[in-house]
């Protein structure tokens, strides 16, 4: 087989163009971001033709990426697994030797190591929501935090909601996969479902819609449930809201890091993520799932509501100890 020369930048562009037709926007973004480091490494090594790639050079990239990025084992595995997929694609376009992807090495990770355990504890969640209810009631931040915690949905799903998806009579939210108007669900049609809401959550949503929500439509003529004066919120905006409201000093707690608000850079809302205690949206989801499981809600019910399999719940979300699980099973068995 005769290899056809191709430079790293062109290869990445062609790879991403093909990925865009087969996977979600979030996956495309992740691959582009990770492989951007590979292109950077090629530039530093003056590799202008990927025909030159060998197993040894791929191992050199792995060590460079680990050191430059100060990667954890899990992050290193994610990085190298993406490179392996990319190299396999390069084989399909005659850019590298066949079976080179088999030489891409990544660390072995146990299920426990692959499970991230950062979450928003129920006590902190209650403090955050209580503070918002008192001092920032029915604001975009209050509504966003309330939806994320009480529904366990992903931030992309929260962003996808329209005003019409909220049914105050049925006290529910309907999630729909609408990729043609820029609001896909991670699991596509399988992610579509109706989520029941409590009266307390509905009261916040009702007041948001009546008093606070800007009268905005998006470029497709839809009315986003979560919107600012500039239109439907972006996932990055939702992330910023979560960082902001989970700073301990933001919801009336003492700083656990011995910082003074006068000289702490994280007190600026735009730099809220610099607070070591601030959390992104996913810990809301993980904490809420764990809270429901602790509250004896059946795992199948949590699975359906959160749109995640029970296996994934066990590996990535369920933070109960083995003893706690045993005691909960005992309570059920003692009733028989």
From TrEMBL:
Query: Which portions of the sequence form the region Disordered?
Result: 169-189, 254-280, 317-336
Which of UniProt's keywords are assigned here? DNA integration, DNA recombination, DNA-binding
Classify the source by domain of life.
Answer: Archaea
Domain annotation Tyr recombinase: ranges: 115-330
Q: Which residues form the Core-binding (CB) domain?
A: 6-91
Against CDD domains, the record matches this protein to:
DNA_BRE_C
Write one Gene Ontology MF term.
DNA binding
Biased composition range(s): Basic and acidic residues: 178-189
Q: Name one GO biological process term.
A: DNA recombination
Q: Do you know which PANTHER family this protein is assigned to?
A: INTEGRASE_RECOMBINASE PROTEIN MJ0367-RELATED (PTHR30349:SF41), PHAGE INTEGRASE-RELATED (PTHR30349)
Q: By what name is this protein known? A: Tyrosine-type recombinase/integrase
Q: What organism is listed for this UniProt entry?
A: Halobacterium bonnevillei
